[in-house]
Structure formats: C-alpha cells, structure tokens
Amino acid sequence: MTTASGLSSAETVDLFKRYVIPNYNRYPVNLVRGEGSHVWDSEGNRYLDLFPGWGCNLLGHCPQPLVEAVQEQVATLIHAPNTWHMDLQGRWAQMLSERSFDGQAFFCNSGAEANEAAIKLARLHTPKEKYKIITFEGGFHGRTLAAVTATAQPKYHEGLGPLVAGFQYAPFADLEAVKGLADDETCAVLVEPVQGEGGIRVAPAAFLQGLRELCDERGMLLMFDEVQAGFGRTGEWFAYQNFGVTPDVMTLAKALCGGIAGAAMLTTREIAPSLRPGMHAATFGGNPIAARAGIAAIEMIESEGLLENARRIGDLFRERLSSLEERISLIREVRVLGLMVGVELTVPGAPVVEGCLKRKLLINCTQGNVIRLLPAMNLAPEQVDEGCEILAQALEEAT
Ligand SMILES: *Cc1c(COP(=O)(O)O)cnc(C)c1O
User: Fold this and answer.
1) 197 in ligand 1 pocket by Cβ < 6 Å?
2) Using only C-alpha atoms, what is the Rg of the chain?
3) Phi, psi (degrees; rounded to nearest 5) at 356
4) Which of ligand 1's atoms lies nearest the C-alpha of 229?
5) Quick one: CA dihedral 392, 394, 397, 399, positive or negative?
6) What does the pLDDT look like over 246-274, one tens digit per residue?
7) Distance from the alpha carbon of residue 246 to the mean position of ligand 1, in angstroms
8) 226 C-alpha to center of ligand 1: Å?
9) Which of 18, 259, 281, 303 is deepest in the core (most CB within 10 A)?
10) Torsion angles phi and psi, residue 309, rounded to 5
11) Ligand 1: which of 195, 254, 340 to mutate, most ligand atoms within 8 Å of CB?
C-alpha cells in the first residue's frame, strides 16, 4: 500500500535525508493513516498506538465528530485576523473557562508559545523590579529561547547561550529550595503539576499547596504548565483539579484541539488585562479551525463520558503494569495518573521501544529509562491488555 504520493517508507527516508533538516531522531517508518488507536504505515502494517501524536491525539486518530466539524469549518471560514471578532474563539474561551477557573484566554499555536505568553504576562503584571521566574529540574516548557531557558535540563541548553536572563531552578517538589530562591525580584513560579517529559513525575499535593501559599505571600504568580497533563489527560479536565490547588495562569497545548494545532494561556480576570493591546499577539492564535476543533474535542469528551473512561483505563494500566512489576525485575517503578503512564526501568528504554515497534506497538521512552504512554481517552480495555502483553514481551527480551 502506498499513499497519494506513492512513496514507500524507504523512499520517504531518502527524501528526508535530502530535504528535511535532521533535528529529530526518526524511526524509518512512513505513517500514512490513523483510526482510533491504530496507525498504518505505507507498507500496510498496522500498529497499536499508545503514544498517539506525542499525546496530541487525545481522542485517537481522526475522531469522527472532530473530523466532521473541521471539514465543515474548512469550507466555511479558514482564517480571519485577530483584529476582528470570531464567535467560535469567544465560545471556545467560554467553554475552557467554565471547566477551569473563571477567567480569560489568550490563544496561540504551541506549548512553547503559550509559555512565552505566560512568561511575558508575569513580567508585565508584577511591578517593574520583579522579573525572575523559578522553574524546576526535570521540567519541560518548550524550545523557544525563553521556554527552553525555563526548561531546567542542561542537555537542552548546550551551545545556545547566552540564555534569557532571570530564570532560577529548584529541585522538583522541593518547597524549601523555592523559599530560598524567592526574593523581591521574583515575579512567578512556573511548574508542571505532573512532569511529562521529566518521566511522569506527579507533584505531591502538599508541595503545590505550599507554592500557592508562598506565591500569595510574596505577590508572585503561580503558573502551571499543563501543556501535557491538562485537558482530560489525567481523568480530570485539568491536572490541577487533582490537587485542590488553583493556579493564576495555566498553559495548554498538545491535546487541546484533539490533534489540530492549537494552544491557550488561561488566567484570571484580574491578571488578564496586563497582557494589554499591542504587547503580545499570535497571527494564527484562536483561528476558526483550531477553535472549532477545540470545541468539538470538549463536546466529544463530555458526550462520550471520556473523563470517566480515562480514569478507568488508567486504573487498568496501573493494575496490569503493577503485576508486570512483580514479574519483571527490570521495572523499578510504575507511575500512573489517569492516562499519563510511566514505567521506570533499571536499564535504557530504547531497546524496549524498538522491541515494541517490531511487534507493531508504538510507545515512547523519556529520560533514557522511563517508558512513557500517553494513550487516547477512548482506548478499549482489550487494547490495554494487548499493549501490556507486547510490552511484557519486549521487556522480557531485554532482560
Ligand atoms: C510538549 C510540551 C511543551 C512544548 O510544546 P510545543 O507545542 O512543542 O511547543 C511545553 N510544556 C510541556 C509540559 C510539554 O509537554
């Protein structure tokens, strides 16, 4: 089987070698079609995808209600500039606000962009002498220069300096360290309530509560990067709802439009006006296609009861993987919150990912030794069993 362009996987790899900048490590497979939690390559192989779209395809590949909504929107209004009003963008903001804290949205196109907006907002909202932002080791906030500076992982900084001034790093979940760093020049704390790229590390609720109190005392903004953990992923609409701690600013992207590019920064009504006209913008932000897809994603999650399903499927993963942990000595720890699933190994994970690929299962490895799954919310229980069985085979092979 070939695609419309008729290229095989090998031919596609050749094309990339010649014309595409090699800034990613890519598997030599040409993916051409997806449906639910399956994808197909140009040779007709079918894969079970437990990491669909790097966590963006939260509703599986090509979910029908979203496909239909976008098809209709493409034929109606593709793009209009943000110098006009668009009812879809307003309605989308309302729907996000009604499901989180009562506030207002700025729309953009990627997680890094949403975090850039948050960083600028923090500096604009607080007094002029406040400019420092505290972030956490093992965190990930994107690749633009300020976002990558906020990302306290040295491997992402190599050769890029000088980085953006004013970022300070604390060990994850170390409240005392944050207290030690915070001073009269600190304007914000930026944290992932669940570190994704950092290896599915769930923040203790007491740590986030402590940050909330510290930020209130010192006049700093508490900003949650929920680009990966937000929007249904944890079985709640937003990750912060698992912890009983509400941030002042929240960033969203990845799954926000069910696989269409779209991102948002939400903040309270009090803080929002600090992002005043002329100080920030995104040409494609909140465009009608993204807005329509974002609305369709919310409606689908609610009409199909997918928050409940995400919790059920997450519990099933925890059960299955914990029983593997007893059997397979390579597993050091299993960490699950809803559909954020991490399996920390005592050995490198790359051969395990390869072993799964060979068996037609797509997964991810982060931090060298953490197997990461970000499955679709409408995954079926049998697919959990199938995926865990294949993963067990690949782990046993690596033992
Ligand atoms: C992926 C990710 C980002 C960056 O998002 P992009 O859309 O790639 O810019 C930022 N923060 C977190 C927590 C992420 O997982």
Assistant:
1) yes
2) 21
3) -70, -40
4) 13
5) negative
6) 999 999 999 999 999 999 999 999 999 99
7) 20
8) 9
9) 259
10) -65, -40
11) 254
Give the model confidence (pLDDT) of 310-363 as tens digits. 999 999 999 999 999 999 999 999 999 999 999 999 999 999 999 999 999 999
The CB-side HSE value for 274 (13 A sphere, CA atoms) comes to 21
* pLDDT at 2 > cutoff 60: no
Tokens of 33: 């079609």
All domains of the chain, ordered by start, with CATH? 9-63+305-398 (3.90.1150.10), 66-303 (3.40.640.10)
**Alpha-helix runs per DSSP H in the chain:** 9-19, 64-74, 87-99, 111-125, 145-150, 175-181, 205-218, 288-303, 306-327, 350-358, 381-398
Please work out whether the CB of residue 371 comes within 6 Å of at least one atom of ligand 1: no
User: pTM score > 0.85 for this model?
Assistant: yes
Report how far ligand 1's centroid is from the alpha carbon of 358 (Å).
28
Given ligand 1 and candidates 197, 223, 364, which is best to mutate, with the most ligand atoms within 8 Å of its CB? 197
> So what's the pLDDT on residue 1?
45
Q: How far apart are CA 223 and CA 150, in angstroms?
A: 12
Instruction: Please state at what angle helix 288-303 crosses helix 87-99, rounded to 10 degrees.
Output: 40
User: What average pLDDT does the chain have?
Assistant: 97
Work out the widest C-alpha separation in the chain, in whole angstroms.
Answer: 62
Could you identify the atom of ligand 1 that is nearest to the CA of residue 142?
A: 4
Q: Cβ(192) to ligand 1 under 6 A?
A: yes
Angle, alpha carbons 225-227-229 (nearest 5°): 90
Atom 11 in ligand 1: residue holding the nearest Cα? 141
C-alpha angle 299-304-308 in degrees, rounded to nearest 5: 110
Conformational region of residue 95, where left means phi above 0, alpha means psi within -120 to 50, and beta covers everything else: alpha
Give me the count of residues in the chain. Answer: 399
